[in-house]
Task: inverse folding
């Protein structure tokens, strides 16, 4: 099936995006290798999980996989924190040869639906430096938030230890880092959300604000004094 032709709808539709089952455990090493490669390419610490961890997510019905025939074409998993008050959507990966065809969008959509159906009361969140993920999250109804609005569950924040920027997170007492935190709160659907602006407007304003903050943090890290 690959390389995919950019606008061939039939080829794109032939790639299945499903909740992973036992039959997909054979792809776990490929998932981790693809995450490793992307992490090296981007120079950021997308956390590598153990084989056992990814396998457990699949067995618990908490993983989404994209499959092109018998080829692995993408992955993401969900995990709860703070006794099911929060659900993180993590480990999103689309191998290079499958990128740019809307697969991440489909995977994230499916992970969102899975999170909503399994944990309808939970807030859904993620951390990312990637514009693609920020765009997808905004379209799903996430809003950028400060880290104080995310879970305080230590288990979640431990996942940041493998990131090259972990020292920044420590230096700021976990209040900010180079990642943007994004959150979907089901309460917003019930009329408790911020009104007036579209999620994308909120997102754009946040990106502008964060650019200035990130620059200051990066300059601090490199020993330069911020203004
Ligand atoms: C990020 C990643 C998952 C995107 O996968 P993908 O299947 O190519 O993404 P999609 O085709 O679904 O694109 C979704 C949107 O993001 C945009 N996008 C994709 N890659 C982008 C990039 N590098 N920069 C900016 N926007 C990007 C697309 O244009 C699309 O927007 P649109 O629908 O408004 O046109 C993939 O590049 C990847 O696996 N990267 C390495 C791992 C990673 O960064 N994971 C995320 C960790 S938070």
Result:
């Amino acid at each position: 099936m690959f390389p995919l032709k950019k606008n061939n709808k039939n080829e794109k539709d032939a790639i299945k995006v499903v909740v992973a089952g036992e039959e997909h455990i054979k792809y776990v090493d490929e998932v981790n290798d693809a995450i490793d490669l992307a992490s090296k390419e981007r120079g950021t610490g997308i956390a590598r999980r153990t084989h056992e961890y990814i396998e457990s997510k699949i067995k618990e019905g908490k993983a989404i996989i994209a499959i092109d025939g018998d080829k692995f074409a993408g992955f993401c998993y969900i995990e709860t924190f703070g006794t099911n008050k929060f659900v993180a959507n993590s480990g999103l990966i689309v191998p290079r040869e499958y990128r740019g065809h809307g697969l991440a969008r489909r995977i994230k959509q499916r992970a969102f639906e899975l999170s909503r159906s399994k944990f309808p009361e939970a807030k859904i969140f993620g951390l990312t430096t990637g514009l693609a993920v920020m765009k997808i999250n905004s379209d799903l109804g996430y809003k950028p938030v400060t880290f104080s609005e995310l879970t305080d569950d230590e288990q979640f924040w431990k996942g940041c230890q493998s990131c090259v920027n972990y020292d920044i997170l420590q230096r700021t007492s976990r209040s900010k880092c180079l990642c943007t935190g994004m959150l979907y709160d089901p309460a917003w659907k019930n009329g408790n959300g911020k009104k007036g602006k579209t999620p994308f407007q909120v997102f754009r304003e946040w990106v502008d604000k964060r650019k200035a903050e990130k620059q200051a943090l990066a300059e601090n890290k490199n020993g330069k004094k911020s203004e």
